[in-house]
UniProtKB/TrEMBL annotation:
Root EC class: transferase
Protein name, UniProt field: Thiamine-phosphate synthase
Family matches, as InterPro entries: Aldolase_TIM, ThiamineP_synth_sf, ThiamineP_synth_TenI, TMP_synthase
Organism: Skermanella stibiiresistens SB22
Protein's UniProt keywords contain Metal-binding: yes
Binding-site residues, 2-[(2R,5Z)-2-carboxy-4-methylthiazol-5(2H)-ylidene]ethyl phosphate: 134-136, 164, 184-185
Gene name for this UniProt entry: thiE
GO-annotated cellular components: cytoplasm
Length: 210
């Protein structure tokens, strides 16, 4: 198996009960390291209900369950960690909220400086993107794969590649050292269903690592 693993972000709006089935189908199809619940523009109780439905699906399969944006709710609801961006809670405040044992990941766009800062502060991973065009979260940042190569050679802290990644375009990112490939569309919108999306990405990661 390649060292690189798959990291899934949820769609930004979902029906928790229905999506629990979809998530189980995805996770049962292959290797997934973690799932990030990424809901946007919803109230706290909606986030809590989604966590209650989805966290057990991931954690019962030994898949880490990460909450986007909200360290306070991640700590309150038993998530394995939180992902924060540059406009969210700063790393130190997020770490204080979730504790030393939880995972804290930080968005670093295309910036070596932001990534070094996050890693030195104690982040468990740094995320670079958007590597390719995406409509899920349009980005003004477009790192080159050599950023991942530089990072992997310099630093121990794992790096996540995100943004428009598919089974067809992930190879250059895997080859240069991405520790995780994070996707939304390539799995949830796969024409043959999310399980096929996971299988296709697992196969592409494996092939790129050979
Ligand atoms: C793994 C991963 N990488 C990047 C992001 C983006 O975070 P952020 O810039 O805070 O944007 P939103 O996702 O909050 O819209 C992420 N969520 N996960
Ligand atoms: C949530 C997110 N963050 C990004 C970043 O560049 O920080 S790109 C992105 C969306 C990823 O979705 P898809 O796999 O559908 O392109
Ligand atoms: Mg955010």
């Amino acid at each position: 198996m390649a060292d690189c693993r798959l990291y899934l972000c949820t769609p930004q709006a979902l029906d928790p009960a229905a999506f629990a089935t979809t998530l189980a189908e995805a996770l049962d199809a292959g290797d997934v390291a973690c799932v990030q619940l990424r809901l946007k523009d919803v109230d706290d109780d909606t986030v809590r209900r989604a966590i209650d439905a989805l966290r057990p699906v991931a954690q019962s399969r030994e898949v880490a369950f990460i909450l986007n944006d909200r360290p306070d709710l991640a700590a309150e609801t038993g998530c394995d960690g939180v992902h924060v961006g540059q406009s969210d809670w700063p790393y130190a405040k997020a770490r204080k909220a979730v504790g030393d044992k939880a995972i804290v990941g930080v968005t670093c766009h295309d910036s070596r400086h932001l990534a070094m800062e996050a890693a030195e502060a104690g982040a468990d991973y740094v995320a670079f993107g958007a590597f390719y065009q995406t409509t899920t979260k349009p980005s003004i940042y477009r790192p080159e794969p050599d950023l991942l190569e530089w990072w992997s050679e310099m630093m121990e802290v794992p790096c996540v590649a995100i943004g428009g990644i598919t089974a067809d375009n992930c190879a250059p990112l895997v080859r240069v050292g991405a520790d995780f490939i994070c996707v939304v569309t390539a799995v949830w919108n796969h024409p043959d269903g999310p399980g096929a999306g996971v299988k296709a990405l697992n196969a592409a990661i494996e092939a790129a690592g050979e």
